[in-house]
Amino acid sequence: MNVRIQESADVDSSAIIGEGSSIWHLAQIRDEARLGSNVVVGRGAYVGSGVHVGDNSKIQNYALVYEPANLADGVFIGPAAVLTNDTFPRAINPDGGQKDVSDWDAVGVDIEQGASIGARAVCVAPVRIGAWATVAAGAVVTNDVAPHALVAGVPARRIKWVGKSGSPLELNEAGLWEDASTGDVYREKEDSDELEEVTE
User: Fold this and answer.
1) Torsion sign, CA atoms 62, 4, 50, 93
2) Contacts within 8 Å (CB) and 24+ apart, 35-41
3) Exposed, middle or buried, 61 (CB in 10 Å: 0-12/13-18/19+)?
4) How far is 80 from 44, CA to CA, in rounded Å?
5) Position 193 pLDDT exceeds 90
6) In Å, how far are 17, 127, 161, 180, 185 from 130, measured between CA atoms?
């Protein structure tokens, strides 16, 4: 199988690593994680137990993807980004005893096809990042992100729309949103803060 795993990486024997994938120095892939084909996991990155990573995704250096995150195909996780899994974290219980796995229920971050999470951004679970959305570097996401939205800030808010190319969409004379890089055109849905692609 055409998989490249550096000797210093820590890959659990139960993890599934797809054809053409690369796991770089000091990365850790935990038990039952499932990585698709052509996935790149950068130096020092962490992929938690049972996490699913779709084909052609990239997890950059020192990113932390905690279980039970689910990443669709073509997802980009920037350097040192964090996908959390504990909404109300504590090291100890109210009685002072140390918490263990049985003391809390992990919640995950779901990221849809083609979405990108910028460097040092934090996605506070549970949240869903829509297809082709972009989370700006350093943003803190506490609510779901619509497909094609570009969100920034703390907490993150939509500041633009973006196309599949990642470029910001521009409003044309017909009142539609256009991606100058691809020629794709979108309209805002009625009664919804989302876009839909114009195909006719």
Assistant:
1) negative
2) 36/73, 41/9
3) middle
4) 9
5) no
6) 25, 10, 12, 21, 18
**What does the block give as tokens for 55?**
């084909």
Burial of 91 (0-12, 13-18, 19+ CB in 10 A): exposed
| Cα–Cα distance, 109 to 83 (Å, whole number) | 6
Cα distances (Å, whole numbers) of residue 51 to 31, 33, 182: 9, 5, 32
Q: Which amino acid is at 92?
A: I
Per-residue pLDDT of 109-160, as tens digits, reads 999 999 999 999 999 999 999 999 999 999 999 999 999 999 999 999 999 9
